[in-house]
Q: What sequence folds into this?
């Protein structure tokens, strides 16, 4: 049996409204989307996966070392080739020997990961973490881009718990051309053959739901939502009322979440204490998964789906990198990929060192102790991710290293600080330079409390380097 | 140990010179230096050369010292390139003094050069901040404007230093630079100009930041055994001090001062057997306005935290108690990285020789030069005394 024992969800803080699109284009093609979440320039499906998974782990008080199966699902992984579960696993501090699986290729990837995680529990896994994160992208003048949102959901799965998977079924039938992206292309396309697209959607959903063993008597239905209309058109096919779909719909306020659409709706349903949930995904190709979950007891959840920072359409184009041209060519203070890799324990997991001679902390734990000068070894420890700003500036145009010119063009001025990062007890700290994120630069001042998160730092030679940044502390 | 003397110093103009190469600029500085020696000095009397450069733009990364000395006809002279970021030629001067004091050389050329303007402004930025801590400091999104802005944020928070006080540094240094024909930005600026310029890194605006520059500068350091052959007005190098520190600001205990400068000043004052109140003027490293204010405190011109009041009092203006950066400083005269430290010594030489023109201080006998590498990873301080008057 498969049980959900912890839930996390995340959406970026930026929002753009349907009105902003109408102002820019004279029309808005994604009917039913009132506003949608927009990833910041330093976010992608990997960083959003980290945000959601961290919340699921914290809510359920699960030790990352206990995770023995990790699944990551996205229709838009930031690299087309390269197994990102290695980096995601390291960011989350799961074991190197944890089984990792990457799911992609369609918006059904999120429920595919859920499915495979359940299978793993039937075999030898005990604690499964699955994360679905997505930020679809289309051409600026088409419906895919107008609808494209951003968000992520993560679930801890175990063999027994307060929310049990009581039934599941799948269905596939060949429907080429409803939503696709050819290898090498960056924008997802739809031919827009209206009736054909609807048929692909409803046939697969109906096929999966019809294959369930029991009667459909759920309170709420998390249905794939590429736009604001299709899920409701599939109500009959799924055997539910439109009210049951609307109750946890994410399309209206977050937009098309791709492979995270059904997972985020499911996370929302679980956070709102519904007792019986039907989750049905659809992916082009086409196929569908139907999953029925019964909730018998309270479930630890942590969902952060709110966002209050509105973008104009021009800011949206900048933030998404549609109207920027990338970093200038040249070279200066170059950090090679191997040297970046060596700093990953610090970048992802805040690994500091304690001087064996004087007990002072050092970050990074290398070279002579900054306190006593001893050139010896360090006892390694992980910092808490909380701390205080010691010095800070806002970097304006002209003040950024060229490595950050593209980011600055996209997201504007940013805060750069020196922060005292604390140990788990909060009794000691060690200073390090870090960039601000997730808030306007004037929200960082000397003495403010901060926490770390993981974001894209910069991209050079085609390789994106991820590492911690700081943001105002949300709760202490 | 033998005494070392400054017998000549000269520089090229600082600025942006599309028609000049690093070698042609160095030649201009070398010629000016040779011509500044009161008596005759032949090039073949030079025993040794130390040349500071960072190598901005990636040109001549290896052997860039010999590349300029051979260009000015010193092909056989042992030449060493010195690299300590923005303090490169300040440390070249120090090497020259050490060579003379050790007895290994009698006549030593110390200088520096940099070309920073012959590439796009975007490409230039790849080189700004390359002398900071790269993996963490730079990759938190800072170049030196950001790092000095962080120091300013703490100085303002801790001591109540104001943006207006920062702007007064620019006003003073531009006022001095307007009197220096070699200055890159040789124009006066009003306090209002210096207050309203675009922000680069909060709280620092454009007028709180020095420019990027092309330029070269040299000085000649000789031993007490030969000094009389070259001048009747010997200027003795009485104080020499240097310090190093963590390259990254975040590794240091204090963000409101530069410990390397403090150590350098302490050693230099000790050796010269003087205190800051004995100085007649100083050239300090004002790459950013906050850097000049921190220098006031690090060099002991005022108590810690009181630099804002000192600039506001006018004490460091030309004609007052302790004129600072009579040349215009890095802010107005310019900052061709490798040339800057030697360029400061050029101003000291001119002031002590009575050849500073419109900006001449009345009968100075003792001046200080303070040169910082990066955000304080290295610093060097020299004290020079005009011996003819000090002796009496």
A:
């Amino acid at each position: 049996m498969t049980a959900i024992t912890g839930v996390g969800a995340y959406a970026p803080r930026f929002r753009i409204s349907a009105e902003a699109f109408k102002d820019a284009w004279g029309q808005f093609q994604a009917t039913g989307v009132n506003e949608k979440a927009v990833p910041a320039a330093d976010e992608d499906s990997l960083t959003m996966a980290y945000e959601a998974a961290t919340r699921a782990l914290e809510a359920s008080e699960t030790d990352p070392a206990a995770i023995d199966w990790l699944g990551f699902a996205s229709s838009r992984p930031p690299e087309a080739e390269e197994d990102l579960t290695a980096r995601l696993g390291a960011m989350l501090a799961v074991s190197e020997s944890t089984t990792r699986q990457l799911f992609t290729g369609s918006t059904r990837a999120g429920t595919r990961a859920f499915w495979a995680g359940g299978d793993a529990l039937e075999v030898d896994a005990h604690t499964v973490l699955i994360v679905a994160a997505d930020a679809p992208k289309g051409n600026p003048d088409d419906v895919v881009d107008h609808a494209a949102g951003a968000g992520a959901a993560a679930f801890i799965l175990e063999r027994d718990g307060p929310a049990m998977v009581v039934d599941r079924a799948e269905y596939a039938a060949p429907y080429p051309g409803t939503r696709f992206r050819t290898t090498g292309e960056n924008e997802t396309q739809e031919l827009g053959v209206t009736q054909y697209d609807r048929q692909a959607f409803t046939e697969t959903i109906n096929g999966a739901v019809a294959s369930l063993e029991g009667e459909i008597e759920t309170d709420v239905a998390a249905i794939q939502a590429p736009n604001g209309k299709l899920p409701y058109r599939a109500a009959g096919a799924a055997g539910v009322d439109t009210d049951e779909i609307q109750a946890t719909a994410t399309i209206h306020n977050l937009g098309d979440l791709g492979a995270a659409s059904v997972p985020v709706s499911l996370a929302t349903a679980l956070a709102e204490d519904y007792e019986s949930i039907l989750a049905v995904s659809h992916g082009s190709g086409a196929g569908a998964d139907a999953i029925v979950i019964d909730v018998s007891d309270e479930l630890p959840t942590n969902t952060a789906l709110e966002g209050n920072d509105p973008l104009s359409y021009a800011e949206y184009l900048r933030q998404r990198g549609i109207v920027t041209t990338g970093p200038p060519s040249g070279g200066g203070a170059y950090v090679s990929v191997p040297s970046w890799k060596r700093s990953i324990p610090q970048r992802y997991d805040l690994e500091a060192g304690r001087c064996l001679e004087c007990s002072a902390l050092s970050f990074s734990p290398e070279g002579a102790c900054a306190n006593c000068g001893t050139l010896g070894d360090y006892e390694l420890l992980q910092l808490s991710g909380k701390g205080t700003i010691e010095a800070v500036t806002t970097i304006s145009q002209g003040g950024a290293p060229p490595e950050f010119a593209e980011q600055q063009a996209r997201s504007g001025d940013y805060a750069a600080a020196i922060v005292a990062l604390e140990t788990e007890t909060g009794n000691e700290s060690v200073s390090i330079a870090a960039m601000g994120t997730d808030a306007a630069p004037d929200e960082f001042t000397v003495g403010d409390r901060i926490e770390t998160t993981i974001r894209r730092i910069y991209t050079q030679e085609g390789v994106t380097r991820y590492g911690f940044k700081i943001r105002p502390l949300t709760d202490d | 140990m033998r005494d070392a003397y400054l017998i000549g110093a000269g520089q090229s103009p600082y600025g942006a010179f599309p028609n000049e190469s690093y070698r042609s600029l160095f030649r201009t500085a070398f010629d000016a230096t040779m011509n500044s020696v009161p008596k005759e000095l032949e090039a073949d009397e030079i025993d040794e050369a130390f040349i500071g450069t960072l190598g901005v733009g990636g040109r001549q990364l290896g052997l860039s010292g010999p590349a300029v000395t051979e260009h000015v006809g010193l092909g056989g002279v042992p030449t060493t390139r010195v690299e300590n970021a923005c303090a490169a030629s300040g440390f070249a001067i120090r090497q020259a003094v050490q060579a003379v004091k050790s007895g290994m050389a009698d006549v030593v050329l110390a200088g520096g050069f940099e070309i920073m303007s012959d590439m796009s402004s975007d490409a230039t930025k790849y080189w700004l901040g390359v002398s900071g801590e790269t993996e963490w400091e730079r990759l938190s999104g800072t170049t030196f404007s950001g790092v000095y802005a962080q120091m300013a944020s703490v100085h303002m928070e801790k001591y109540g230093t104001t943006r207006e006080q920062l702007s007064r540094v620019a006003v003073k240094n531009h006022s001095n630079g307007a009197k220096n024909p070699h200055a890159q930005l040789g124009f006066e600026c009003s306090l209002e100009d210096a207050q309203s310029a675009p922000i680069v890194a909060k709280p620092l605006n454009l007028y709180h930041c020095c420019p990027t520059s092309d330029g070269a500068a040299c000085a000649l350091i000789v031993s007490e055994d030969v000094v009389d052959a070259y001048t009747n007005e010997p200027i003795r190098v009485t104080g020499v001090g240097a310090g190093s520190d963590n390259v990254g600001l975040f590794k240091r205990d204090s963000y409101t001062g530069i410990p390397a400068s403090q150590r350098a000043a302490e050693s230099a004052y000790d050796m010269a057997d003087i205190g800051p109140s004995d100085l007649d003027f100083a050239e300090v490293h004002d790459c950013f306005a906050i850097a000049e204010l921190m220098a006031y405190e690090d060099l002991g011109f005022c108590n810690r935290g009181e630099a804002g009041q000192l600039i506001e009092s006018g004490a460091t203006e030309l004609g007052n108690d302790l004129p600072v950066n009579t040349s215009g400083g890095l802010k107005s005269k310019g900052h061709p990285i490798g040339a800057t430290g030697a360029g400061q010594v050029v101003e000291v030489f001119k002031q002590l020789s009575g050849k500073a023109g419109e900006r001449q201080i009345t009968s100075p006998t003792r001046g200080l030069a303070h040169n910082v590498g990066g955000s304080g990873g290295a610093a060097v301080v020299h004290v020079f005394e005009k011996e003819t008057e000090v002796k009496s």
Notes: Chain B touches chain A through 46 residues (CB under 8 Å). The CA atoms of residues 165 and 311 of chain B lie 7 Å apart. Chain B has a mean pLDDT of 95.
